[in-house]
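Quarterly update from the structural biology core.
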Amino acid sequence: MLKDLAKYSHKSVKYKIRRIAKISISEEIAKQVMELISNGNLTPGQRLPSERELCETFGASRSSLREALRCLSIVGVLNARVGDGTSVAVDGQKFLRNIIEWRLITERHDIENLLEVRIALEGVSAAKAASHTTEKDIEMLRKLLAKMRASIEDKRAFASLDLQFHVMLANMSENALLVDLIALIRSQLLKAVYTVLLVPHALPHAYKEHLAIFEAIERHDSVAACKAMQSHLEAHLRRFAKAGADSGNPRGKTSQASSNGRKRACSPKP
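Predicted structure, tokenized:
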């Protein structure tokens, strides 16, 4: 029965494939495979038809087909295993991570732009964490804050705990896409995060801001948690501007609107 089902599934996909007419054959194959996935004709975990079938249906050579499938495997759209054929990736986390990471690496995003995006994303993260938090989560955050307070004189230790706090909130949001986006952006800001902590009195202020976020989450107040997080990250942005100004680095300067803070919406229903 499973063989019959697989055969039917392959036929269904086969009828959706158009013969290649463009010069860049491998690119067209990759495009069509992506379309088949996006419209549901190929589903996560589903195996693709054999190379022979695909070559015949696409009207393409085996080398062009393999190039297309290899490219899709590299970016995480497909999984290719020796002896097991090629299948659609079960989730798109690797694909999303690769695409966004490449964008961040190749584009000249300044720190201010990344921090602006982080403010928006982590505001949502804090709000959702407040909505979904459990007593176990609260206790873990409380212990983490105690460690942060004890590390106020140790910038490296504090920076590590700061990272743990934000990652923990992202995981508490129960939104895998949000977790990936926050992790990606934060990975591009590691140097900036440590630079901010060099500003005089930055650590005590950062601790108080994290405490305010925690207290809102402990009350399960999503709006307050969102606002506390955004207020913390806006203060972080201002401290980064100060660090840049003190060092004479023009990339540390931020726009007046950003350094003064701006009104941001925090939905009462995350």
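Residues 222-247 form the longest helix (26 residues).
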